[in-house]
Write a structure and sequence with these properties.
208 residues; 8 helices; globular
Length: 208
């Protein structure tokens, strides 16, 4: 598939098993399937994989072990980032890697998933679903949208992700503040800015 799509780098599946993502809601109900979870509009209490995935492939293990830096995100927290971390074997491989682990927090809340989440709430949710995962650093955007952009975001019911510094720092994770926002579309990261921020973090961590 990498060859067919002419992908730069490699795209590897977290599991080769046929599994479903299941969201548990506070009212006791469940929603199955990535797209349905994002659209259901219910608060997500926890996630699980059904059935539990088996062993991860040697390609995935090799990629994790050989990585210079491991990035989590950006992307939908509940339906893109967390599903990969529900497999304890992947978490163990990440922890055993020599690479630093960097969590990239979304620049804005997402309807149906993280509408009013602060930075610390993202981290707490990550910790809840992958309690053994060691996160070394968190990358947070520090450039606010314009007033007009904020108004348009408000009309859609979303807002920039708030950096609650005291709560975030209390979690013992190094916070890196950078301008990584897409100035035309502030609910997204700018790919070039984000790539540069990651490389800067990588270089600074290797020099320590």
């Amino acid at each position: 598939m990498n060859r067919i799509l002419a992908v730069r780098g490699q795209v590897l599946p977290a599991t080769l098993d046929k599994i479903s993502l299941v969201a548990n809601h506070p009212d006791g109900s469940k929603t199955t399937g990535q797209q349905w979870i994002a659209k259901c509009g219910k608060e997500i209490e926890s996630l699980e994989l059904k059935p539990e995935p088996g062993d991860i492939s040697l390609d995935v293990l090799s990629a994790i072990r050989e990585a210079d830096i491991i990035t989590l995100g950006p992307g939908s927290l509940f339906t893109s980032v967390l599903p990969n971390l529900l497999n304890p074997k992947i978490v163990a491989a990440i922890n055993e890697s020599r690479a630093k682990t960097l969590f990239i927090v979304n620049t804005a809340g997402q309807l149906g998933e993280t509408k009013d989440f602060t930075v610390s709430m993202h981290l707490k949710t990550l910790k809840k679903h992958a309690p053994d995962l060691v996160v070394d650093m968190v990358l947070v955007n520090n450039r606010p949208p314009t007033e007009d952009q904020l108004a348009r975001m408000g009309d859609k019911g979303i807002a920039p992700t708030e950096y609650d510094a005291r709560e975030t720092l209390a979690m013992g994770v190094t916070t890196v503040l950078k301008d990584v926002i897409d100035t035309e579309n502030p609910i997204r990261h700018d790919p070039k800015k984000t790539a540069k921020a990651i490389m800067d973090i990588l270089h600074s961590s290797t020099e320590m």
